[in-house]
TrEMBL record, chain A:
Position of the signal peptide: 1-23
Protein name (database record): Outer membrane beta-barrel domain-containing protein
UniProt-listed InterPro entries: OMP_myx_plus_Proteobacteria
Domain of life: Bacteria
UniProt keywords, alphabetically: Signal
TrEMBL record, chain B:
First and last residue of the signal peptide: 1-20
The species this protein was found in: Corallococcus llansteffanensis
Low complexity bias locations: 21-42
Protein name as it appears in the record: Outer membrane beta-barrel domain-containing protein
InterPro entries tied to this protein: OMP_myx_plus_Proteobacteria
UniProtKB keywords: Signal
UniProt biased composition (Polar residues): 92-102
Chain positions covered by the region annotation Disordered: 21-124
Length: 272, 408
């Protein structure tokens, strides 16, 4: 798949380069372009608030709430610190798996599922590069100025993990109950569950592609596609007898890979 | 409305200009500054500096002597290249000199600068009009969305998307190539027909992980694979604009929205790739897919079309192919067919003479592959599992389309 992807990207790059070259030979690219920028953020600090929604969910879903503080070194380059909290939960699919797997006793040795860590508190510092400045004609007489940028940075995040496989105290195997609910059908009455839990603090990398639309002088709206990346960690060769007896089992996976949390971010920016 | 707005802004600007000329050093008149998007710097009184807008550049340096010659008018571009945001299409009333030589005489109403510094707009480059606007003049902030330089109406567009990659694959992964033809009926409205072939379509690693670790998998309808699709529809371009990359290259772009309907061919994974060991020799048996028929296809999408010159464009789009999925037959065989085939297989009987439905392609579940020695009869039970509990779903196959087009 990687080789295929590389071939596709290579072909695409060649095509795009050829098109650009042809266009420049024709003189259709004007060297004087969006010259007089209406908004010049250089030298200004800015404060931003953003909310991130998951683009896609598998076993977990995250909802990010971030505060950012940036300083624009140049019109096209800024440094930004972002921190926030991600409200996270298991998806319905994860819950369904956990309930049905309790009763699947034919599977007595298995591995933990990947990508089950949930990111909560986090903070990153990164650079924002905005080489593209443009404007669109929203309606005939309303131009909207924008920047397109790439963002990359790193930091740390607080992660927690709740297994959907290892229940240390099976309450009702057939019904898939692994908590202290008062009635089998009343999941909301549970105040404690017995799934194996872990937590850790780990390095986090974040990258984004975004648009910043200028609204008047000091305000802006940001739309981003942002990926939060951290190293996964899970155990393999788990023995059902051990985990149901409440004993640690298995060993860490050799190459657990990376977890990606891709978010669609909507943000507001105030420039000082 | 645009002239009225321009007039209103001009009228509103008169007191400010009067104040600027009376209470503060005068400034050179900026060419093309009468448009609503054009911002002349406020009067920069040293004693009482007004709060300066971030949109304004530094106030011009003010010389103590007046220019010797009236400013000359730089040649304006034809009207079709004028500011589309409200800057008048007529040439500016006065502009700076087009050469670097000092002016010869000053008109009576020429702005007089009262500082020792030379005006910043004496440079010919700064006075030059670009597409009818003083883009290089540091005293004037002008921002322009030009009229579209390239008209689309009546043009044909052939779009090749070499890379179409599914971005929402939870249980499936798709990658393919698409070819679209677009006829621009009007400037902002076009008809389109297109086809897409997915040269890679398979179940996702996530689905295989669920099968391996927890004996769960997506319902057949939720993991249906799209082999190819064809659709027809419309495309609208409600927005257009331009952007600069590092102030060096200009590109015109449009926001495109599309919608359509068509048909797509689907399949489902019956058996992943396995190793088949026969007589001490191991053969790699490729994954096997079963035909699940043609499905109705809906398409909605949006993206950007960046135009280079009159004939070329790049398209970056996201499209959602929506198809209904009900899996009750695999390779034309329904549950009753699979039950009959399984009974015959268990009894080691030939399949000829079985009472099967006419669409059932029984040959696909009979015989031995000569290369891998895989007995196709072993796949009957897998096919039956897919249709044992008929499932239905509406699938959204959201893909990123990267392509280029030729207009003619």
């Amino acid at each position: 798949m990687n080789a295929r992807t590389l071939r596709v990207f290579a072909a695409l790059c060649i095509s795009l380069t050829a098109l650009g070259a042809a266009a420049q030979e024709d003189g259709v690219l004007d060297s004087a372009v969006v010259r007089n920028r209406l908004y010049k953020p250089a030298g200004h600090p800015e404060l931003s608030l953003s909310v991130g929604l998951p683009v896609q969910t598998h076993l977990t879903a995250h909802y990010f709430f971030n505060v950012g503080l940036a300083y624009n070194l140049f019109d096209t380059f800024a440094l930004e610190a972002r921190a926030g909290y991600a409200a996270s939960r298991h998806t319905g699919l994860a819950r369904s798996i956990s309930e049905s797997f309790l009763d699947r006793e034919d599977k007595r040795v298995t591995d933990e599922l990947e990508d089950l860590w949930q990111l909560n508190l986090h903070g990153v510092i990164g650079a924002r590069w905005a080489p593209i400045y443009g404007k669109i004609s929203l309606v005939a007489d309303i131009p909207v100025h924008f920047q397109t940028y790439l963002w990359a940075g790193g930091g740390f995040g607080n992660l927690k993990r709740e297994s959907v496989i290892q229940c240390t105290q099976v309450v009702d195997r057939a019904a898939g109950v692994c908590d202290n609910r008062t009635a089998v059908d009343d999941r909301g009455s549970a105040t404690e569950n017995y799934w194996v839990k872990e937590s850790r603090v780990a390095p986090v990398v974040s990258a984004a592609l975004g648009f910043r639309f200028f609204v008047q002088e000091k305000h802006g709206v940001r739309l981003e596609l942002r990926d939060w990346i951290f190293k996964d960690s899970y155990r393999v060769n788990l023995l059902r007898d051990d985990w149901e007896a409440g004993n640690p089992t298995g060993e860490p996976a050799g190459s657990p890979g990376l977890t990606h949390l891709v978010q669609f971010d909507l943000g507001y920016t105030y420039s000082f | 409305m645009r002239p009225f707005r321009s007039i209103a802004l001009l009228v509103a600007a008169v007191p400010a200009l009067a104040f600027a000329q009376g209470a503060a050093p005068a400034q050179p008149t900026a060419p093309g500054s009468s448009g609503p998007e054009t911002t002349a710097p406020a009067s920069p009184s040293p004693a009482d500096p007004p709060e300066r807008s971030r949109t304004q550049r530094d106030a011009p340096a003010v010389p103590q002597t007046a220019p010797d010659a009236p400013a000359q008018v730089a040649p304006a571009r034809p009207p079709e290249e004028d500011d589309a945001e409200g800057t008048p299409s007529q040439p500016p009333a006065s502009t700076g000199p087009t050469s670097g030589t000092a002016p010869a005489s000053a008109p009576g109403d020429a702005p007089v600068l009262d500082s020792g510094e030379a005006p910043r707009t004496t440079d010919a480059q700064q006075q030059r009009l670009v597409n009818g606007a003083p883009l290089y003049n540091p005293n004037v902030n002008v921002h322009i969305v030009q009229k579209k330089r390239f008209a689309d109406e009546g043009k044909h567009e052939l779009v090749l998307y070499p890379g179409v990659v599914q971005v929402n694959g939870k249980f499936t992964n798709h990658a393919g190539t698409a070819l679209h033809y677009v006829y621009h009926l009007q400037e902002n409205f076009a008809l389109q027909v297109g086809g897409q072939y997915n040269w890679y379509s398979d179940e996702s690693d996530f689905n295989l992980e669920l099968i391996d670790k927890v004996r769960e998998q997506a319902q057949a309808a939720s993991s249906l694979l799209l082999q190819w699709g064809a659709h027809a529809g419309v495309e609208v371009t409600p927005l257009y604009g331009k952007f600069a990359f590092f102030n060096n290259s200009l590109a015109q772009f449009s926001l495109v929205l599309s919608g359509g309907a068509g048909v797509g061919k689907t399949r489902h994974l019956i058996r992943p790739e396995v190793a088949n060991e026969v007589d001490g020799q191991t053969y790699q048996v490729p994954a096997r897919f079963g035909d699940t028929g043609n499905k109705f296809l809906g398409e909605v999408g949006g993206g950007f079309r960046v135009q280079f010159g009159e004939s070329y464009a790049i398209r970056l789009e996201v499209r959602d192919l929506i198809y209904t999925a009900r899996v009750d037959k695999v390779d034309g065989c329904n549950l009753a067919d699979f039950e009959s085939l399984e009974a015959a297989r268990a009894a080691n009987q030939p399949f000829e003479g079985l009472n099967l439905s006419g669409s059932c392609k029984v040959a696909k579940f009979d015989g031995v592959d000569p290369e891998t020695k895989k007995n196709y009869r072993e796949d009957i039970i897998l096919g039956r599992d897919l249709v044992a509990e008929p499932s239905s779903d509406v699938l959204n196959n959201v893909s990123f389309y990267a392509g280029f087009s030729v207009l003619f």
